[in-house]
Design goal:
The protein is an all-beta fold and 62 residues long. It has no helices and 4 strands. It has a domain of 35 residues.
Length: 62
């Protein structure tokens, strides 16, 4: 996408700058679990979704 900008009676084509958010990093030793407890007290070491109900896993206590 190009932007057309007028500056001092002249027109310029400008490429917009994209700001990219840094990638999320998992906290060392973080534990994630299903909020619905579909699989009892089963925990995971990475963020994601519950394989049973597909809800997002929530951070829990170690």
């Amino acid at each position: 996408m190009l932007l057309l900008i007028k500056y001092l009676n002249n027109w310029y084509f400008v490429l917009p700058i994209q700001i990219i958010a840094p990638a999320k990093t998992d906290k060392a030793g973080a534990v994630y679990a299903c909020p619905m407890k579909c699989e009892g007290d089963k925990t995971y070491d990475k963020e994601g979704s519950c394989p049973t109900c597909k809800m997002d896993l929530k951070p829990g206590k170690n």
